[in-house]
Amino acid sequence: MSKKSNFPQTKVKNAEPSPKNLDWVIWAAWADRITFEEIFEKTGKTEAEVIKLMRKSLKPSSFRLWRKRVAEKSIKHRKLFHQSRKKMRAKISIDET
């Protein structure tokens, strides 16, 4: 069996699924840095549809854990994500001086 390329392959434990698959929506909903707006842009699914999909696909305890994370993190919306990043940058600049 011959080598395909000279570059090493990086193997990821939980690789990103194809965006055309419903597994991608579940993967993106669990990811902290992917907002509901980005999910809507790529798949056309609204926040309510993502919540319904998560409720149907996950075990009840996993769904409750996910909802708690989404509510506490408050970065699943683009506007809140940018606000939290702005606060973080301001704090870093204050700490450095």
What would you say this structure looks like, in words?
It is a single chain. The protein has five helices and no strands. It is an all-alpha fold and 97 residues long. The chain has one domain (22-96). The longest helix is centred in the last third of the chain and has 19 residues, at 78-96.
Keywords:
mainly alpha; 97 residues; 5 helices; extended; 0% strand
Number of domains: 1
Strand content: under 5%
Q: Biggest sheet: strands, sense, closure?
A: none
**Fraction of residues in helices?**
55-70%
Low-confidence stretches: none
What does the radius of gyration come to? 18 Å
Number of strands: 0
**What is the chain-wise order of helices and strands?**
HHHHH
Mean pLDDT, all residues: 80
Q: Count every helix, treating DSSP H or I runs of 4 or more residues as helices.
A: 5
Shape: extended
Structural class: mainly alpha
N- and C-termini, Cα separation: 57 Å
